[in-house]
Amino acid sequence: MTTFIKQRSAIALGSRIGVIAIPLVVFIVCVLFVPRFLSVDNLQNVLRVGSILLIAACGQAAILIVGGIDFSMGSAVALLSVVTVILAPEHGVALAFACGMCVAVLAGLCNGLLIAYLKLPAFLVTLGMLMVLHGLASLLSGGMPLDAAPSPSFLWLGSGHVAGIPVPIVLAVLAVLSLHFLLRYTVAGRGWFLVGTNFNAAVNAGLPARRSVLLAYVVAGLFCALAGAILTSRVGSGQPNLYPDLAFATIAVCAIGGIPLNGGRGSAVQVVCGALIIAMLNNAVVLLNLTSAWQQLLMAAVIAAAVLLPQLHTVRRRYTHLFKGNAQ
Amino acid sequence: MKASTINRQARFLVAPGGLLLTVCVAGALVGDYASLGNLQNIGSQAAILALLALGQMLVMLVRGFDISVGAVAACSSTVAALTMDSLGTSSLALAVLAGLLFGGLNGVLIAYLRVQPIVATLCSMIAAQGLARLISDDGQPVVPVDASSLADLAFQNIAGIPLLLVPALICMLLVGLVLKKFTLGRHLFMVGCDPQAASLVGVDSRRVTLIAYLACGVFAGLAGAVLFCKTGTGLPTEGVSWALQSVAAAVIGGTALQGGTASVWPVFFGVLLIQALETALNIQGVSPFIAEIVMGLIILVAGGLDRLILRLFSSTTPYGES
């Protein structure tokens, strides 16, 4: 029994170190083998590009922990960008961004209401929402990208600086810290873990489980809105096809970081590690002049490796009987 | 006991009912809608989605998902187009083989390595997209030099049935037969209802799950072959929304998200419903974007109907266990 516990805690410790070790290994490999990777400008670029994905992935992580999933992020971001660009000339940049972000939060609220209170499956609700929001964005923009009037204030979120640090990076750090705070130190965040592990147990323990699920989707909507606002500002236009794969990319981030999709587990650190790995690899692929085909194949391999590596010890244990000949 | 029988029947009636309603309403509003020509058109449009939805139904039956079907179909259409000049018609078999490989990858990852279906199929979706880009000229459509042997396939009818739809119909007959009459079919239902219970009574639930994903991959490959026959080109970047549509068709056709409940023909009616609705909106001159919104709402409603039926016909439905 003691050895069992020791073994278990060793594995837990190992996976905890592994979470931080893998991005480090990727970083060192990139530094060694990718020319021009290690420079302040390039590293800042890696972080700036990765920050959008990281912020959106914070939202996805909150939803995964509570046992749901969100496929609609890509379209929510697209609708946000279109609304912002349409409103910007008349109502000013600040109000336009506020309205655009409200739209994304509203999308999260709709998802949450349908999933938590009407008990619809998250998979279908967010798939339906993906199409509805994309249709709305296309309808509003006429299916074409709309260019925003170039102004420094519109572009500030995406390319401005605060005390010499790019704004997206500052916002990403704030987002990660707030997710960490939510998950660690608030009653609502602690509740997500129980709700995600076992919904009925959470109800029986007296948790407002439905409100907890709703809250997770609204928080995800907020993170998604922030990511979308930065992205809109960076590209300076409203596009119905702004980042169609955002939801899949954020799920990949969480999977690479080791957050399981069946709920109840996850941390902000894992999200950061997943996002850093993807951002560094994407940057390395560009620096190495590889085509997008290779980038996709590499990404698939990385996701598979990230999901399979932590399981190695269980897989080995599960299949030892095949070699020894005594089935358990 | 009786309640569950009604529940089971009711969920399968949604798609045929919806299809009948759509055709009647659209037929009344638009003169030519219910004509044989237009119905044949709907049928041939449905050919690809029918194959994808059939595969999706099989993996959903064993509690899975496959979001890679669209990308795999696009990839295998590219494979067929690339090999058409050197291999002739047997390049279509190669397309199916490509689908089989991706299905096998999914199946091994999910059944034997216990990767969650969404992550595993996301992985193979990205891999299929990458592979399709790699073998084509970075996503450009591949046009074979001599595609004359395919030229008429897209418009031929056999006994009033569009030729393109024939592979889908044959596959459906086969799957329906297997599900109803063969041990494998019963095993699929058992694994879907409760994998552990199935293992306890001696069903190799991993093997059964692997077979479901293999079949799904084969159908996706076949869909790619049909796509190639229909357009005469390999389209590496096609099919992004097909996975969503196939899930929608399967759910409208009464397939339960929690596994263990599925039937072939309602799924086919679900496919026809989606296609009939799209055609109706198209003929009416409605913006394709509104059609997309309607499709999204239908997926939402499909999920809602599932819940509603459960609530109407069974006594207790706690969240998360149904």
3D structure, described in words:
The complex is a heterodimer of chains A (about 325) and B (about 325). By secondary structure, chain A is mainly alpha-helical. Helices cover about 75% and strands about 0% of the residues of chain A. Chain A has helices at about 1-35, 40-65, 75-90, 95-115, 120-140, 150-160, 165-185, 185-195, 200-205, 210-235, 245-255, 270-285, 290-310, 310-325, and strands spanning about 145, 160, 165, 235-240. A two-stranded antiparallel sheet of chain A has the order 1-4. A two-stranded antiparallel ribbon of chain A has the order 2-3. In chain A, strand 2 and strand 3 form a beta hairpin. The longest helix of chain A has about 30 residues, at about 1-35. Chain B is mainly alpha-helical. Chain B has one domain (about 15-25, about 35-315): ABC transporter involved in vitamin B12 uptake, BtuC (Orthogonal Bundle). Chain B is built from twelve helices and two strands; from the N terminus they run αααααββααααααα. Chain B has a two-stranded antiparallel sheet. The two termini of chain B are about 15 Å apart. The model of chain B is unreliable at about 315-320 (pLDDT under 50). The interface between A and B is large, with 50 and 51 residues.
